[in-house]
Hints:
With 291 residues, the protein is α+β, with helices and mostly antiparallel strands.
Amino acid sequence: MVNVPMTDAVFSQPASSLEYNKVTANVRDLDTRTRTVEAATTNSTTGNAALSNRLATVETKATTLDIRTTDTTSGNAALNTRLGTVETNLGSRGSSNPAYAEITALKTQVAAFAKPTTASDTALYGDVINSRPRGDCWWAEPISNGTLTVQATRSPKTFTATDLRFCVPTAAGGTGTFDLKLYTGTTLTGLTERAAINGAGFVTAAGMKHQAINLAISEGDYIAIAILCTGFSPSPKFSSTATSSGAQLLISETNAYSVFKSGQAAPIPNTINTSDASWSRANQQFWFAVA
C-alpha cells in the first residue's frame, strides 16, 4: 500500500472525517512497513545477527589463513625454504648438482650397455635401410631372363632417401636389357612405383651399383625393388642370401617379402601385390639398400 494523499486543514473550518481516516490509514501503513524492516533485521538467515555471524566466520578463517602463511612447517617461509632446497638439488643443466649428476650417471650406464659389439652397415657403408645385412648376402644368385624378381623390406625410420644401392658380383654376358623399379607402400598388397632405372650397363660390369633418387620414406613403409633381365647369356648374378630348400617358409611366413614370376617382359608393372597368387615365393633374399 502507498501513502494516501491528504488535503491540508483550513483554520476555523471543521475537520473532515474523510481526511481523518486518511491519516489513520497512513499511520497504519507506516507501522506495517516499520515492522517489516524490523523483521528483516532479526531474520535468522539474512538479519543483522546472521550477517554478523557470517562476518565473524570470515574473520576467523582469515585469521587461520594468516596463521598458516606464517606456520614454521607449512607457512610461506617454510615452503620457500623447501622450494629453495629443490632448486638447489635440481641445479641447472650442465651443472654437477645432485639431480643432473644422477641423470649423467644414468646416461653413462645406458651408453655403455647400448653400444653394439659390431659395427652396423650404416656405420660401415652408410646404408640407412637394407633388405638384409651385407654380411648375410655373400651369395651370388643369377636372375634368369624373363623372371621378374621382387625383394621387399620395411622401413624402421622416417627419412628421405637419395641413393639406391644393389650389387652385381658377376656380370651378364652377351647383350640384353635390364630394368629395375623401386616401390613403396603401406602394405605389400599395394606397392606403387617411385623410381625406375634401366640400361644393360648396370649389369654388364660387376660391382656395387648406385642410382640417385629423391624419395621420402616414412617409418613402417614397405620398400621393394623389382628386377627384370632379358637376352643375356649368361644372366647377371645379384648379391643374395644363400639358397636353401624350404627357406621360403621362413622368409614369407605371413608376408611375401621375396617373390618371382617367370615368362615376363618389359615394362615392369607400376603397381605390385606380392601376396597375389600368381607369384612364387623365393627361398632366398636379394640385397638392396637405400641411403
